[in-house]
Amino acid sequence: PFPGVIDMFGDEGGLIEFRSSLLATHGFAALSLPYFNFEDLPKVMDDFRLEYFEEATRFLLRHPKVKKSGIGVIGTGKGGELALSMMTFLPEVVAAVCISGCSSITATALHYGKETLPGLCFNMSRIKILDNGIFDIYEALDDPRNPANSQSRIPIEKAEGHFLFVVGEDDHNWKSSLYAEIATTCLHQHKKANFNLLSYPGAGHRINPSFSPVCLVALDRVLGVPILSGGENKAHAHAQEHSWGKILEFLNLHLK
């Protein structure tokens, strides 16, 4: 049997399979999991139920060619936030890679059983429109450190598995370096040593596998406008090459 990994991306929506394909070439049974804008799923991001992701986890574990000792999750952006949530609440998930994700629920609420984590809000008045028409939304998301937003925080200290946080220090999509710092500080305060942080100067938001084209600007499907992802070509390419090797090491260590 092969170690199983669920792979998710952000607010691009739809089914994105290139990273899962690469994971498969490295010996993982990888499931690309869309969660909106695909077939009968909602066309736009709405409140999420973690039971959907729990069903996907159990579906993968039931496969006769997948190891039964637990699965890994990898997610970018909103997908990273969902990876943290799965790791926190689903005992079947034993390893989570959060790339440029937030340590709190954002935009839409997350429900699981009788529990609800409300989403942090985006304040459109804090968006900057650059001279070239690109939108810089770096300051738009409400501050998760504000006590008024404490209910949105993902209680990752409850997780028993292992975390890998990957962030670019020039991420302009949102403050992923800050969110990773919040998450790792929380784990440290709870005397947890189940995490690693990879932080890359000059790298932006979309840290993809090695040799992927550097994406400095991307069309946001929610807003329908071009969004500044941040990053500088050489530094971002280095982050992609280095982090991909570390991600594979992490998944091999904790799943195989």
Describe the SSE topology.
Layout: E1 4-8, H1 18-25, E2 29-32, E3 48-49, H2 50-62, E4 71-76, H3 78-89, E5 93-99, E6 110-112, E7 115-117, E8 128-129, E9 135-136, E10 162-168, H4 176-189, E11 195-200, E12 217-220, E13 225-228, H5 233-255
Parallel strand pairs: 1-2, 1-4, 3-6, 4-5, 5-10, 10-11
Antiparallel strand pairs: 6-7, 8-9, 12-13
InterPro entries: AB_hydrolase_fold (IPR029058), BAAT_C (IPR014940)
GO molecular function, one term: fatty acyl-CoA hydrolase activity
Protein name: BAAT/Acyl-CoA thioester hydrolase C-terminal domain-containing protein
In short:
The chain is of the alpha/beta class and 256 residues long. The protein contains five helices and 13 strands. Pfam families: BAAT_C (PF08840).
3D structure, described in words:
This protein has 256 residues and is an alpha/beta fold. The chain has one domain: Alpha/Beta hydrolase fold, catalytic domain (Rossmann fold, 3-Layer(aba) Sandwich). It is built from five helices and 13 strands. The strands form four sheets. The protein has a six-stranded parallel beta sheet, sandwiched between helices. A three-stranded mixed beta sheet has the order 3-6-7. Strands 8-9 form a two-stranded antiparallel sheet. The longest helix is centred in the last third of the chain and has 23 residues, at 233-255. InterPro entries: AB_hydrolase_fold, BAAT_C. One of its GO terms (biological process) is fatty acid metabolic process. Pfam families: BAAT_C.
